[in-house]
Design brief:
single chain; mainly alpha; Arc Repressor Mutant, subunit A; 3 strands; elongated
Length: 151
């Protein structure tokens, strides 16, 4: 049985390696698109939130609204993002991904995790089962740790 210190070290080392590889692959992809990481970050935010305003982007990225607006302008010009009128406030604009923007993000997500498919081919069936079981246990425990404490 592995003690808690060893288990913590194994989990941290694994997370470091996997995170490094995922970020490296994503960095290569973003560089190939000609976008900045900030612009790609906006696209990812729109991918996960579906739509938002400039203030949402500036808040998340901790930059001014003017800086966020400049980044968005380039994405709109590239036809990756479209601006529409906010139905609740006609002065405000809502942003959402275009079909081209969604395609770029989908490709980026596949590119970021393609190496996982290659890694899996290196595992034996027994190793695959052990990894799947262990990661399922970690994911379930992580979910439990996210729940608010009961009073």
């Amino acid at each position: 049985m592995t003690d808690k210190v060893q288990l913590t070290q194994v989990i941290r080392q694994s997370m470091d390696l996997l995170t490094h590889r995922a970020f490296r692959e994503q960095g290569h992809f973003v560089k190939s698109t000609g976008l900045s990481m900030a612009q790609y970050g906006i696209l990812m935010q729109l991918h996960y939130q579906h739509d938002c305003g400039i203030s949402d982007i500036s808040s998340r990225m901790e930059i001014s609204s003017a800086a966020a607006s400049q980044l968005v302008d380039k994405l709109v010009q590239s036809k990756l993002v479209e601006r529409t009128e906010d139905p609740q406030d006609r002065r405000a604009k809502q942003l959402k991904l275009t079909e081209k923007g969604r395609g770029l993000i989908d490709t980026g997500i596949q590119s970021r995790s393609h190496w996982v498919d290659e890694l899996i081919t290196l595992l034996t069936p027994e190793e695959s089962d052990a990894v799947a079981a262990g990661l399922s246990i970690l994911a379930e425990a992580s979910g439990r740790s996210e729940k608010p404490a009961k009073k």
